[in-house]
Amino acid sequence: MKNLIHVLLFTLVFTFIAIAQDGGKRYVPDYSSGPEAGMQYQKTVDLTRHFQLDKQLKEAIESRNTELELSIRAEMDKLYKGNLITPEISDTDFPPTDVPGSPDLTDWLPNDVMIYSGDIGQVGSDHKRIDLKMGEDGNLYSALIRRPVTGTNGRIDVFRSSDGGATWSYVSGAQNASAYFGQISMAVELRSGGATPNLDSTRIFIFYSRSANENFDNSTIAYASFLRDGSAWYGSASLLTPSANNKLLYPSAVTDGQYWSTATYIGVTCGEYSNTGSQGISLRIARTTDWGLNFATAEIIDGYPSWGDWYPVSAFKRGTTDSVYIAVERRFSDITSKIRVISTTWTPSSSFFRYSITGVGSDEFKKPEMTIVQDASALPKKIVIACIRDGQAVYHRSMDGGLNWIENSTLSLSSENNVSYVSISSDSSTAGDDYLIGAFQKGNGDSLVVRRGRPGSLGTRLEKPNEFQSSTFNAPKVAIFNPSGSKYSAFVYTGIVSNYTNSLYFNQENLTTSIKQNGNTVPEEYALEQNYPNPFNPSTTISFNLPVENFVTLKVFNSIGQEVSSMYSGVLQAGSHQIVFDASKLSSGIYFYQIQTQSFTSTKKMILMK
């Protein structure tokens, strides 16, 4: 077959403003004054044996010592006692049976890929109704909650892209005729990694709030899990349940998969609130060490009900003893909301330590988002929390694992004081200083602003206007797409039609805009052909052959070896392929283009003459 691939060097257009430094000031928490003075800011539980067993279980799983693994699990079960639950698999939602069709091309926004066409949920459940993740298999995954319709009150859809976001295919999801689904958080992890990973072992977990009522009274946290082809589906409608007259909201998935090839643990945090929404009750955490068959759970209580913690979002922190950080919007009765971080052990327990990130002044801080850079185990962890401060997007950062903080670095301009949502994410590779991505949505919904760099200097500002207004009911989600060492900003957002959230859109740097298949001849060997024409101005065609299906990267380098473009990164079927390279933004000179697969690498020279 022959594929024709058109590439845009940079499809996120629009307004560039250089911002070299984001400012901020060093903040030292004072636990002796303010609204929490005199209240316990930490709780310690002796978990020495739990930590030992956690470490031993990891080692047993990684070494595939099944007998030892079962022995350790039996001892862990005794330690957790009443806090170990086996989700009731029979009490579950179901995978959807109808597959959404590809959206009509005439409905695409300029330079934006439509992942899903249709109404998206927005009633009674705040804003976490879409998600975006890059999997360890090099694919992008997006998830959304649909608007209730007759016969199906709750439905979640998950989509996958194997070509860097150019095209999306349906994977699976969850649905129920009578129950409502409110908020969602997704994890994507490779179950069989190592030197020769089985990419098809990639498993998706979706955690979501679920209620029999549209107002989400008595809502539980449910989950569903399935492989990347939609098979091997299982789940439970009541992974976590609230106490009487309460509800569970804001699920946030958390995993340690960056550091393990097979022994990945997966968890979820959430908040418990009164059905009236007037009182915060507790924070909850659940973690599975066996891919969803059993979960250990714990409840964390930090001074409630003297205040309440809303919009909890969590991230995994690697350390001597691993932990989970939960950023919250803390609401007090007599002062404005502040940002707090609750640190607890990755081994579920009631222990915690509270970081008071923002002070006790009159500024109001709302809707936090958090990322912890998952770099090498021995390095101090970089923690970044984005939020809205009196209408402006800001972020707070710690470069030493939470010991010291710098607060109120600018994400948006000071004149942009109508921000409705923020989003933040990071990449595990810190090479190149562009491993952190932050974004915010203006209150009028007419544009998104994306910045990518490092903590303290998020770099070039990219404002992306939307042809149609984006929904102010849903927060955009960002990720860094890094399939082969090059990092690209990626994001999803929802549009709005007739005052209702509608359709899910995707955009990314270096987005491939079309792929066509022509013919079915399969070559006998790999080959990279000389580009034609050569010399060229400004476009040239590059042809190559693949005897088998492969994950392929195509890059262009200048004469001193610097990468100037990643033309393609994704899975291609066996066949003969062509890619059209547009060098209109490059200067005249000698360049080198390179193809790389798991078993083939080749580089050729080309000349750009303008």
Task: Compose a concise summary of this entry.
With 610 residues, this protein is mainly beta. The protein has two helices and 41 strands.
Structure description:
This protein has 610 residues and is mainly beta. It contains two helices and 41 strands. Strand 7 (130-134) and strand 8 (140-145) form a beta hairpin. Helix 1 runs antiparallel to helix 2 (66-80).
CATH level-two architecture of the largest domain: 6 Propeller
SSE class: mainly beta
Strand content: over 45%
CATH topology of the largest domain: Neuraminidase
- Low-pLDDT stretches are 1-20, 102-110, 513-517
Highest-level CATH class of the largest domain: Mainly Beta
Shape: globular
Mean pLDDT: 86
Fraction of residues in helices?
under 10%
| Total DSSP helices | 2
- Radius of gyration computed on alpha carbons: 24 Å
Number of strands: 41
Biggest sheet, in brief?
A: 5 strands, mixed
Ends apart, CA distance between termini: 33 Å
> Which sequence of strands runs across the widest sheet?
34-1-39-36-35
Q: How many structural units, i.e. domains?
A: 2
List keywords for this structure.
Neuraminidase, five-stranded antiparallel sheet, 2 domains, disordered N terminus, 610 residues, Immunoglobulin-like, five-stranded mixed sheet
Set down the secondary structure blueprint:
Blueprint: E1 2-7, E2 15-17, E3 25-27, E4 42-43, H1 48-62, H2 66-80, E5 84-85, E6 113-119, E7 130-134, E8 140-145, E9 154-161, E10 169-176, E11 180-190, E12 202-211, E13 220-227, E14 234-240, E15 246-255, E16 266-274, E17 280-288, E18 295-300, E19 308-317, E20 323-331, E21 338-345, E22 352-356, E23 365-372, E24 383-389, E25 392-398, E26 405-410, E27 419-426, E28 436-442, E29 447-453, E30 461-465, E31 477-481, E32 488-497, E33 500-508, E34 512-518, E35 527-528, E36 539-546, E37 550-557, E38 563-572, E39 575-582, E40 589-596, E41 601-608
Parallel strand pairs: 1-39
Antiparallel strand pairs: 1-34, 2-30, 3-26, 4-22, 5-18, 6-33, 7-8, 8-9, 9-10, 11-12, 12-13, 13-14, 15-16, 16-17, 17-18, 19-20, 20-21, 21-22, 23-24, 24-25, 25-26, 27-28, 28-29, 29-30, 31-32, 32-33, 35-36, 36-39, 37-38, 37-40, 40-41
